[in-house]
Amino acid sequence: MSEMTPYVLVLYYSRSGATATMAQQIAAGVESVPGIQARLRTVAPVSTTCEAVDPEIPAEGAVYADLDDLRNCSALALGSPTRFGNMAAPLKYFVDSTSTLWMNGALIDKPASAFTSTSSLHGGQESTLLTMLVPLLHHGMVYAGVPYSETTLLETQTGGTPYGASHLAGTRSDRSVDEHERALCVAQGKRLARLALALHAMRQEAL
After folding, report:
1. How far is CA 128 from the centre of its chain?
2. Amino acid 78: pLDDT
3. Which residues of 95-104 are buried (b: 16+ CB within 10 A; e: fewer)?
4. Average per-residue pLDDT in the chain?
5. DSSP 107-174
6. Rounded distance, CA 99 to CA 155, Å?
7. Using 50, 70 and 90 to split pLDDT, how confident is the model at 53?
8. What angle is formed at CA 58 by the lines to CA 53 and CA 62, rounded to 5 degrees?
9. According to the model, what pLDDT value does residue 73 have?
10. pLDDT over threshold 70, residue 88
């Protein structure tokens, strides 16, 4: 990836793999748009045992994000399984560490979106997405959900909301991301990429 190529940061936490699959589909949607790339990043788990230290590089999957990944992105897609209607603690921990970016206005006017996975159909998909966007608005980001021009929103019987892509994982977290859910992830990635390019150009003109 060229340092000059704008990229969408697809930042997520995944425990059972569904959110990671969604992140990959969003990244595929981003990279279907010419002129922009996707950067997949995850976050380390958190522990109540303060002495526990994870390796700097995870054994598999995306590498851990740092603040520079967020500072230099042209857009952000933030993904998490739901935890009582909110994002999971590891992702919240990372978001809470971004105050220096907030103080410098590093994310102002950059588009952002969110995606989530739940065990039950009414297990907090929409409330998780809505609460995830709150810190993004504090950062001055421009939130982009999934518009109803994506007719899959009217067809899906599991995941999918206008606030962002979602997935029904099942009570055992073993239900695969289905065709409708994948399509909405790809559509969300495409929309975020197009907005990222437009707003990136606007910010460059303002310099």
Report:
1. 12
2. 98
3. beebeebeee
4. 92
5. TTT-EEEEEEEESSTTSSHHHHHHHHHHHHHHTT-EE----TTSTHHHH-SSS-BTTB-EEE-TTTT-
6. 40
7. low
8. 140
9. 97
10. yes
